[in-house]
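$ run holo --ligand "magnesium ion" --emit tokens
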Amino acid sequence: MAQSVVPVSTHPSFSELFPEDAELEHLAGDFTWAEGPTYIANRERVVFSDVRENRTWAWTDYGTLEAEEDPSHHQNGHCIDDDGLLIACSHGERSLVRQENNGDWTTVAYHFEGKKLNSPNDVARHPVDGSLWFTDPTYGIDKPEEGYGGEQELPGRWVFRLARDGTLTAPIRDQHKPNGLAFASPDLLLLADTGDPAATFGYRIDADGGAHLEREWFSVQPGKTDGLRVDIEGRIWSSAGDGVHVLTPDGGTELGRIPTPETTANLCFGGPYGTLLYLTATSSLWRIPTRTRGLELTY
Ligand code: MG
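-- output --
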């Protein structure tokens, strides 16, 4: 599937977000369910998951595909913590895990009030206090192909906050299937819910780690927002059934789309300047150069 695709504008300003003649480039394929891309600057690569094949892979800045974890214990979403270490949501281990500098994995969140987590799905680092916010739907225990099974112990599917001192709280408990999440600013978290109906919501975040629903921010058609990212000007880059949709910071106006032949589950900015957008779209990893940068890479 080596086809190239060009962005589709629905607003005149959209083409300004890409270099002239920018095309979506197919980097690698033959995955089953590609997810969780995150750029690791100090390793010069984007790490991503093939959740259902129980593996993780990397696309390096030098243009090579490299194996990472095998098995990955069905890792899904990733982010980078305050120490520059890779954080992973592990469906199989029902935990949030961190890769140390020597390559070993350490569990950083596993239980809440004496009960096992469901199956952490996606994770984002708070830009000021370094806390890790992660969603905990049940896909990794409900879907045999996405984990090792098990019983749900917690009474809900929540969003957790792991403070730098290790304190775990559950500030968001009012969604059905919380999934992707991204900080638009220190006091605004965008949270995608892949329940029915699916939508993305804005939560105000206090200095003490509380979260308060402000409003529904946007929804995409076709498909759902799974993972999402924010650029340095606050624009929202959302996954969708037909590719990536780019929206104004308030979520109210669609600027354009980057079409993909299969459902896009997640995306991230990366590369040496933070300007390359990587897409995990079902069987394939894609990339397109932009003229903006990922907000989280500037924190
Ligand atoms: Mg997800």
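-- notes --
The pocket of magnesium ion is lined by residues 35, 76-77, 121-122, 179-180, 226-227 (CB under 6 Å).
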